[in-house]
Amino acid sequence: MAGIAGLLITSTGCGSSGSADSNGTSGNIVFVGYGGETQEYQLESFGDPFTEDNDVTVQSDSPIDLAKLQAMVESENVTWDSVIMTPAGANQHCGTLLEELPPELTEGTKFAEGATGTDCSIPFYFSQLMFVSNNETYSGEKPSTIADFFDFEKFPGKRLLPPEFDTGMMELALLADGVNPDDLYPLDIDRALAKYDSIRESLVFAESYGQLGQSMLDGSVDMALTPESRFGYLLRDGGDWSAVWDATVVSADQLAVPKGSKSADKAFGFLQSTLDSDRQAKASELTGRGAIVADADPDFDEFQGQAVIFADLDQRGRAIYFDGAWWGENLKQVTEQYTAWQIG
């Protein structure tokens, strides 16, 4: 990563305050993620080697709270330096809550198919929203398509939805309703919500990803739309569930620098360091997420291998790549629609 040192010690003019802590190669930066063991693994994969290379300690904070980030930026008291964002959030908040990145930050990096960033963020890892079912509930005929998630008559049971609706939920509903993958965007949100409304009495809304994982593990639900990492943890912890490999929404979650970060120069260096193929491979192996650089070659364990679509891409149905730009332009409106529907 030849460009890291230059990014670390040279002020880019993109939010660095010029304080003593942001001028040298020593000090701290704060990395904000979703918490839990996934963030611990990310620190091990990316934070520890960055500290060793640059004498900059990568501290951890969670959860990701956009209202808190906005308050920091507006008060000019930003204490975070790198944050994970959904593709929708990274597109929507580029230039307002997030710093524009130096163009040289990604020079020389060959990204995997579907791994795109924004002017203010780089892809950090692939995330999937996938359909899984409880083998104890469906011991005979098993769900085999995304349409089965919405077929309560054929497959009765409680259906668990993730805490975030902008990671593939709308896309999966439309695919189940017969929309061709090539015709998904622009999304027909009313049609997607009507599809969920058709099984509303069976829906369970997870308030956090920890709750989502626990609900699957304790068997209080029968189907779920879940990220692959939570499904891998579920299998590891003894959950008797299966993936339904029909349609899986794949998105590249983003890593960005908050606007006004007092250590923006070091944060830019940290972002660049995450593009190292060996570090990407290690993070993928630990978290069960897909690597976003083309030459990373993670060796997934037996549980992750059952959860990650990239472990056997040709045999696992359709990979539908998320359109973060569309979501960035429409997130506010869709949020209003989804919130009104959820409480209606």
| Radius of gyration, in angstroms, nearest whole number | 20 Å
Secondary-structure content class = alpha/beta
Helix content: 25-40%
CATH level 3 topology of the largest domain: D-Maltodextrin-Binding Protein, domain 2
Estimate the mean pLDDT confidence. Answer: 92
Task: Give the strand tally.
Answer: 10
Query: What's the CATH superfamily of the largest domain, by name?
Result: Periplasmic binding protein-like II
Task: Measure the end-to-end span.
Answer: 51 Å
Strand content: 15-25%
CATH architecture of the largest domain: 3-Layer(aba) Sandwich
What is the CATH top level name of the largest domain? Alpha Beta
Largest sheet: 10 strands, mixed
Q: Shape, please?
A: globular
Describe the structure using short key phrases.
344 residues, D-Maltodextrin-Binding Protein, domain 2, ten-stranded mixed beta sheet, 10 strands
How would you portray this structure in words?
With 344 residues, this protein is of the alpha/beta class. It has two domains: 154 residues, D-Maltodextrin-Binding Protein, domain 2, CATH 3.40.190.10; 159 residues, D-Maltodextrin-Binding Protein, domain 2. It is built from twelve helices and ten strands. Strands 1, 2, 3, 4, 5, 6, 7, 8, 9 and 10 form a ten-stranded mixed sheet that branches. Helix 2 links the parallel strand 1 and strand 2. The radius of gyration is 20 Å and the shape is globular. 48% of the residues are buried.
Topology (SSEs and partners):
Blueprint: H1 4-9, E1 27-32, H2 36-54, E2 56-61, H3 66-75, E3 82-85, H4 87-93, E4 121-134, E5 159-161, H5 169-176, H6 189-197, E6 203-205, H7 209-217, E7 223-227, H8 228-236, E8 241-243, E9 247-256, H9 264-273, H10 277-287, H11 302-307, E10 318-321, H12 324-343
Parallel strand pairs: 1-2, 1-3, 5-6, 5-7, 9-10
Antiparallel strand pairs: 3-9, 4-7, 4-8, 4-9
